[in-house]
Structures are given as structure tokens and as C-alpha cells.
Amino acid sequence: MQRTVILASTSRYRRELLSRLRLPFDVHSPEVDETPLAGETPHDLAVRLALEKANAVAARFPDAVVIGSDQVADLAGEALGKPGDHARATAQLRRMRGQTLIFQTAVAVVCHATGFAQRDIAPVRVVFRDLTDTAIEHYLQAEQPYDCAGSAKSEGLGIALLSAIDSDDPTALVGLPLIRTCQMLRAAGVDLL
Questions:
Q1: Annotation marks residue 26 as catalytic
Q2: Contact at 8 Å (CB) between 73 and 41?
Q3: Among 68, 170, 184, 191, which residue is least crowded by beta carbons within 10 Å?
């Protein structure tokens, strides 16, 4: 019996990525407080939130295999969240110009009925170009990435902001590390092929 697969996310980017697997899945909002804990590193925050999101939805659908994911932009140990608006995106990109960030992209797969639970993280090292204020403004006007950690969409024009990307899971920067997700789904008993 193939279990229902649920993506515990409201992110359109994660939904689009998971759709690449051609696997039927449902989407449910995890409704998890994403506030960092005192002293929590960006790495630990991403892992904790991915697991909390998966568990929150699995509590409502215990027979399903649930995928949770979270991404935190890590600038020298400081977590940068989604900017939400133009002013904050401008400030983020100004701080990030010429800097190397680690996008901590975590994924968790759980099934309460079987007791299955795995989590992992796919860190992505990203080097930003030394951007001018004009380049930042043009980019933000063109793409308006206010719902993206780090204020940039590498799958679009945001790639022009970067000088290098280093990752062993190429979809991790967009928001869901599919190589790790596939490994966990197979381990949970979901037949992908």
C-alpha cells in the first residue's frame, strides 16, 4: 500500500520542486511558530523547523508520509529571514554584497503510523558579487523576492547577483533538497520509480 505523501509547507517554491518527482501529494500548512530560540544557530533553527513542520502535519494525518522543510540564510552565524518588503530586502542585499552566505536548507520526513522519522540538512555556500545600490534596486524592482530567505531567487534573475554556488544537492538553494528528500522517501517506503 502506497501511503499518502503530504508536503507540510505553504511555499510555492517547495511545491514546484516536489512536483518534479511526478509523485501525487497533498499540501497542508504546518502552522508552526518560526521564531528562533535564544542562542539557536541558523543550522539548528532550519533543522528544528523542518522537523516541527513535518510533525505538526503528521499529527493531523498520522498514516501519511509527511515532508517538512525550512531554509535559513546564514550570514556569519546570523539568521537572515524572509525580508517581507522592499526596504528590508534592500538592507539585506546591501549587507550581503561581497559576502559568502550559507543557505541552511533542512528537510525532514516522518510517518507517525510507522514511527519513521529522518532529517538532514543541505548547506549551500553562496558568494554574492559586490553589488552596487543601483544593481540591487534594479534586481528588486524586477523580481520582488520578498518571500525568499536572503532576498534573492537563484532560479531567476537573482543568479546575476552571485559569483559562485557550491552544493551537493542542486535544488537545495531553491528551498527543498530533492536528492535528500528522495532518499528519505525511499527509506519511508515511498516508491518513486
A1: no
A2: no
A3: 191
